[in-house]
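Pasting as-is:
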Amino acid sequence: MSRRGFGTEMSEEEVLGHVNAGDTLHLIYSGRRLAGFASYTSLEMDVPSVCGFETRKVLYLNGVALDIRHQGRRLFALSAEIAISDGEPHAFTMRTQNPAMYSALSRVVANSQANSRMYPSLSDVPDTNTQEIASHIAQMLGEQHLNLSNFTDIGTYGRPLNGSVPRVNPEVERLFSHLGIDRHRGDSMIVVAVLRH
């Protein structure tokens, strides 16, 4: 199923790494058929605040795979909405090279609490707390070259993870182009959606 979802040959080890890495696993069904999975990790991070440091709950998406026949049906969005509702995190984070994943999360964020923000962005610069969250996620993932001004990492995977990427809204395409994300080179970005302030 994961291979059909990504459209590339992923090793069993890569798939199991995404599934087993989290503390929550959502099996995603379409009707009575298993359509995919999403794996999440709940984290607590100390971020700078006026009084020193403040502990914030952060939800990290380890991985998601949906059979290609079930993509574009809001199944990932529903899983993310449930995970956010259950965990009530300050921020939702993921690493991706796929504009469709960024686009799907942006719709979830737009439908969540007022004043939610998503980074990287064409129109907003991340504050120190958001940069601290991105830095923590990069360290957790072993990324050593994360650009903290735009949350990009060149050559993360060394290859594209998806066989093809569907067209997304032009603003998301502009963002990926502006950031210089080249999925064929294996570039990625850490996405931080700040849900609660």
